[in-house]
Amino acid sequence: MKNLKKTYILLASIFGLISIFSQNITTQDIIKPSEGKSLVYFVRSGAGFALNFRIYDKDKFLGAVSGSSYLVYECEPGEHLFWATSENRDYVEANLAPNSVYVINAEGQMGAFIAGVNLKPLNPNEFSDKKLFYRVIKNDTKQIFSNPTDNKSENIKKGLETYNSLKANKSSKIQILDISWKFENTDKPTRN
Questions:
Q1: 152: Cβ–Cβ under 8 A, 6 or more apart, which residues?
Q2: Are 107 and 173 in contact (CB under 8 A)?
Q3: Which residues pair with 29 in a beta bridge?
């Protein structure tokens, strides 16, 4: 009788653990900005998985994101010019609200020699955008912006010259991050 009881307890424990590990995670913590600040997540998807895309806020180098990492950047609210570089450069203009979280995807594109980058602001009202954000936060490694000391002055100069040229020519290549596209969480999205 004792052995049967031990066997029962062991089987119940095993089945309990299996059911716990087989459940899908549906909610995940999201970092919130300090009071009065804004927070931007730079996530990564698409081609060129092994390549790093270098991310900037106008004339400040923020860091690089690879296919298995994302960058979290806290900043002052207001006007920002975010851009990324790889084989090309891509730009997002943003007006960030205080106490808000935004997400920009650095999407790898097939390039001539290496992968290019396409910056795309994510919309929390779009199922596919919410799903991408959920998947990245669940699976990838977080990097917190820590004011890198790398001297990227030549890269910054060229990047801002390209931006100014695009802006002067009213190029449609510059994306706009809508101020209302605030993410409240990174929960697993469900279709309505």
A1: 54, 56, 61
A2: no
A3: none
